[in-house]
Protein 1
Amino acid sequence: MAAITGVAEAVLYVQKLEPAMMFYVEALDLKPTAVFDDACFLQASPDSTLILFEIDALERRVSVIPAHGARGRGHVAFAIPAKEMDSWRERLLAHGVEIEHEQDWPLGTHSLYFRDPDQNSIELIDNTHYAQIWARLEK
């Protein structure tokens, strides 16, 4: 059986697309790959996409794709190199983003938690974290 190799896409539901998109583009430096009236596709890495849906518009959308409707806060974790954690912290603070929590994990990895404009929980995590967990599970 083939293994899942990462997060292909994560979806967050926002009240207003423009300010949410600007947050992810400016504060997190994600690159927009497609922008629609009710959605924006942002490239997190070559094989990972974050999709922002404007929730009220999404509920009116007619599509052959099953509805992605949701209410409530979501969470997405972006993997980053451990050596870049400090520069990311500085970047977030420079953009007026409050760090909600920092976590030192027993594996020796670290995470930063903060909120986007719609109060979704966003995490930046050491990109070796899950590889270490999987390595331990495979033993």
Note: The radius of gyration is 16 Å.
Protein 2
Amino acid sequence: MSSFKHGTSPTLADLEAVASGARRAALPSSALAKVAASRKALERILASGKPVYGVNTGFGELASVRITKDRLAQVQRNLVLSHACGVGEPLSSQEARGILFLRINELARGYSGVRPALVRQLARMLDAGITPLIPSRGSVGASGDLAPQAHMALAVIGEGPVLFGGRVIPAAVALKRAGLKPYVLAEKEGLSLLNGTQAMQSVGGLAILAAERVWRAANLACAASLDALTGTPAPFDEAISRLKPHAGQGSAARSLRRLLAGSEIRRSHVVDDPRVQDSYSLRCAPQVHGAVWDRLVEGRRVVEIELRSVTDNPLVVGGRVISGGNFHGQALSFAFDGAAGALAALANISERRTFQVTAGTAPRLKAFLARDPGVESGYMIAQYAAAALASENKALAHPASADSIPTSANKEDFVSMGMWSALKLKKVVWNAAQVVAIELVCAAQAIEFHRPLKSGKGVEAGLAVLRKKVKASKGDEVLSGKLEAARELILSGAFD
């Protein structure tokens, strides 16, 4: 298993692999040398007696308060303790490990002025599987993600709870079991653990990857619905997409053509079908799915730029300490809001196809896909569930980036709300995955009415994966388990 080298430029795939434990991360000596050089530069400036924000001064609105040398270490510890104000349900272990991984990687770039010992402590924690328990709420995305990352920093100094060996235990206990000691912070180090956009990068970045899986599954569900409804794939013709050459539209159309290639169901009604056009949710799938994909591509581009950025403050650059605003999460907030709106639309169009598949108006399909309509209700309420989630997404799609609220006595007077944007995207993706899963299960059940005819080769391959976990219904039954199993298949990448 290859290792990711800290201090380089990660991709979203690297983030997911390391955060999930599928890949390890190494801390090369070259990165530690850069960290040491940055620390020496900071120490030279401190020795000169010049004020350096967050190092020998207070923080935020208290930046004008000078701190005496004998109290500098106390200030850094106090900073971590006082900023650990997160509340609410904790982030997933994968998201928390992602934050730790990304923070290590940025510090290893050598622009923060921390000691090599701090970076080694973080890397050893990640390698040992010590995962900070991080509350999900409390960040406004201005000086980065202060509250979430303060909870990460607590674990470094032996405070707060962590997940270790499958159990929640005190950080000090986990460190001891891993052969580590609580770290004693020096000048600038507490601030460097807190400042930055790593929390929103991790939560939103992992959500973007999940959204891409939902998109691919939505193409499969759409193709299956089209065949189940005896629709026509003519609108997916390459000639049409060439006349409107959005990259996503072309990709979606190609995917749908591949999935439907060789369909026996299509051949069974290609002659003498009185219908001229299918509904928009079928006919315009390349245009809608394609536009969604373009937004996800843009979201990935923005996040991966942020992954290779330095978002601490102040920064040690060329022997100078410069205070700036790279911790501001506006770019991420816009990207996650765009992706959330796109996924909401994907769920909406998927729900419309589920409605049609279950309506019982298409040839060979009975009302609600029931074998004995009236005596059985079939998949009637599955469509209700999809409608409920699609409607929920409409509220969640309201952009977090449209808001700002001043903090720190108005020193931080314009904030990004980037963490809320990431958390909303995560929820929208989950909802969309469930809506698409419902469409897929319903479309698969509808295709049973066409047997022994087969759908397209790509559709049949996808349905074979589905049927390993979700069997066809023989009559009315509790459907929740089947719908949730299909969602987990989608989010696991089973249909990629």
Note: The chain has 19 helices and nine strands.
Protein 3
Amino acid sequence: MGAFKRGGREMDERVCELIELVELACAEHDLFSSCTSAPELLMVSGGSDSTAMCLLAAHLARQGRVDPSRYHVLHVDHGLRGEDSANDALFSERLAAQCGFAFHLRRIDVSQRTAQFGGNVESAARHMRYELAEELLDELCEQAGVPAEEGRICVAHTRDDRIETFFMRTIVGTGPGGFASIAFRNGCVVRPLLDASRSQLRDFIEAQAEAGFFEPIIVEGANAGGEFSEGARLGLWREDATNFGSEGFRAFVRNELIPLAKTRNPSLDETLSRTIDAIADENEMLQQQVEAALGAATREDGTFDANSLAELEPPLLRRAIYTLCKRALPVAERIERKHIDAIAENLLRDGFAIDLPGAVRFSNSRGRISLRAIMERNSELEETLVEGVKLAIPGAVELAGGVRIAAWVVAPGSNAAAFARDCSTATRVFLDAQLVSEKASELTISSRRPGETLQPLGMAGATKKLSDLLIDAKVDAMRRDEIPIVRAGDEIVWVATVAPFPFQRRQEDRR
């Protein structure tokens, strides 16, 4: 590699330092898959950071240290900057070609999504990028014949990004996990450049160009303007004009807040990086304690024991609540401190429920904590059940929302009770025809009534409250009036779609 003098140091020395830095981070944080054929998906925007990541992978491939066929470049065109967005895509495609990597282009309409679902453009763009990346990675893993969890999505976040994120979260408020800033790894997403500075990466790009390993890519567009860096004007990377102002939150932190802080501490990058690493280590230790506590509180039915959680010290309890909520919420949704405080305060209150972002409900039912999706109410079905519907035997009725209930007579054999117990399911039930006919000539389908009881199979003639059965079956409280209750006369013989508990007594129990 040729030597490129800059600031009195040879550039090839800086290249070696960068490679050592990245390899150390990969080893310490277990970033890459042990499967030698697993695909690596490089998220490339065309900016200096992702360009350097792509060139670094190509450098390692030339040295025979990685298999270039494993690497794929994904560029996502957000359609937000018109011609400049198209030119970013063209730059990224040509970069991938120079590196010898397969190129994948995806186009999305971020503006349309934010108009439809709300939120800010930057957040929507980020979530859509990761969704597309995960979909593509699944496809690539399937083609390679390797498990999806072995693939990796490589993102070019740097030490600069980490520090910017720290300041941003300081301003808006966050917990200890937020102060840990950007993680080296989240599942299949890895950030091998997180210990490197943006200036190191730009030095590396220039070194690759000087050594003849990278041919500058001149693309028409705003990068020719005077406000852009020399590297962007020379075609070494692309730049977004919005990064130079202070209107965006991150741009404000990058261009105004951090430079001001560096007037008091010129070594802010190194100092704050050490602080973030320490916070991240402590955060990981606390999270391990929380995971152990959640494991101990988990019940066989998948709910969590409220009393067990309540024994945690307040900081661990808040973190445990946050962990449970984040698992249940869609990725794009945020759990706020007001939700966590409300849950912690009411954790032991039976019947407590709170609706969270993303249509998820946190509830306590008899000391059992659960988080479930809030189902949309079918008001048409509710109205139909309130009025009641007759069901002849044999016969069938169509209810609102595509619900169909039918009845017919079968001859199961001599041991009818055993047949009913063995073959009944939540959507199919076998009843004693003689016993039903004694109660009524036809069945009635309607909604629940206050204080009703029934005799489920397996309870030896004991009764159970209908409300308790619906709670045990984890039927959302908002949907309980949508459950078709099938009766013979005034007696419940089946709660459709919930559980197999027909009105059925053993022969010897009849009187």
Note: The first helix runs from residue 11 to 28.
Protein 4
Amino acid sequence: MALTGRQVTVLGGGIAGLAAARALALRGAAVTLIEQAPALCEVGAGIQIGPNGARVLEALGLGPDLDRVGTRAEAVELRDAAGRRVLRMPLDRARPAWRFLHRADLIDMLAEGARAAGVGLRLGTRIGKVEIGSGRARIQPEGAASEDAGLLVGADGVQSVVRPVLEGRIVPHFTLQVAWRALVPAAGGEAPVATVFMGPRRHLVTYPLRGGRLVNLVAVEERYAWAAEGWHHADDPAHLRAAFAGFGRPVRDLLDRVREVHLWGLFRHPVARNWHAGGAVAILGDAAHPTLPFLAQGANLALEDAFTLAACLAEGDDTAAALARWQALRAPRAERAIAAATGMARLYHLRPAPLRLVAHAALGLTGAIAPRLPLGRFAWLHDHDATVLPRAGGPRA
């Protein structure tokens, strides 16, 4: 039990941090999680948990909670801007089932799981400085003295204070795309389907949450006007409606119900070259590999990271070797997933019109002949089981 009694400090109370805290605590580590916000909470937003993420939650003992708060998905549908169906990809054979969740429900589930595993939570604490020693790290909360962190796990997102210590500060690249996120009351009778409405230089994704009482929407537009990164920037719903005014009645009716919306710029961050250092510190989730949202894999990859990190550390007493093995397992997969997500934007935003019509016709034909084939292209992503660690020296996960 290499982790029994091991002091571990996790920075960040989001999905990656809470999952890592529970995974490490279940293997015997003495875990403290530090979050700068005064409470563990999330803005209203939906999230998709695919089979790969669900396998991790089940392995962490949270499968019943996932069943309780998640809406089981039936399919993904691609539609054109007018609302005509281009392609339907069934999800009914997915094992575990694909689910739609409110992000706040997932955070609550993970937070309760962390507490039940014995994780200590320190809220309202902002870390101003991180120092790496030999086998241990030190952190300095703002306005306080520095303290020993033991093994430090940076799960503190794209604004991580830990990542710059590993490889300096990197300026992200604005993708010339912005995204709006909103929750609206359901009109009633919404099918448990993720629907993508595709138009030139923009697309919109919808799916139901909380038993069909709410509809989550994410709308992406290509534009030159810069927008700040982060989910918490309020915008005028009129701007969203104007951007999608050329779409059909199904989209316009949905946008008419939007009363509150948040806007953020989509930035491309390089995958970190160094995920760990000195056997004293590691980063995971968005701190290591932020991804664009076009494959709904950010949370799923973070869950995979968390479980694999704990599993590698539990294999033996050589922490530096365990962290090196963990990065070797995770980095190639994160890079492949990020590249695939980036490519999806080109499919959704096709122009000019003749190219778009030909592509949509080809997708429709494929769906009519082999409806499961398009999603099968991503079997490497969704069928992955991060809870089964390959033998040391064997093939990568």
Note: The chain has a mean pLDDT of 88.
